[in-house]
Each structure stands twice: as structure tokens, then as C-alpha cells.
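note to self — DONT lose this again. spent like an hour looking for the file last time. sequence + predicted structure for the chain T wanted, 95 res
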Amino acid sequence: MNLTIPYSIYSIAVSSPITPSEPLPPLPDIPRGSLVIVEGRAPIWRYGMALHKLHASSAAAIAFYDPRLGAVVVATHSREWQVGQVVDITLPAEK
């Protein structure tokens, strides 16, 4: 599946060890009904915190990016998306 619908990238990457008290970055602009793709090298608990923060957003679905697979949908409020669905997308390589 090639991604032709509106989507936003939410990077939660960190470059050094952090603690859970470190705040997440601000959310990107999220068009109503879009897919939000969370990406970046970060501890697993930071991904959980990002999912919680995005739950109340206007996104139709939330996916976590895996460079080997693409974006994997982990939560949805839309019949267009299924949890576990893999979206064929390649994000730019981390610098």
C-alpha cells in the first residue's frame, strides 16, 4: 500500500539517555482524519507516552515506524485502518 492519504510524522527520537520525566516534543500539525506516524530511536516507554498523548488528537489512526516493515498501525478510530496493518512507507534516514 502506497501512502496517498494525509499523514503527519511525529519524531520522538532522543540522542542520549533520558528519564521518563523528559517531556515529549510538541505534536505536529495533525489534519483531521489523518494518519500519524511516530518514529525515532527512543525507549519503548517513550513510545507508550507518545501513544497516550496522541489518543485525544484529531488523527484517524496512529502507527509506529519500523524501518524493516514500514509504519505499523497500533491504534485507530477509523474503519479505513486496522490495528496491525502495515503501511508501505520509507522515511528519510536518521542523520
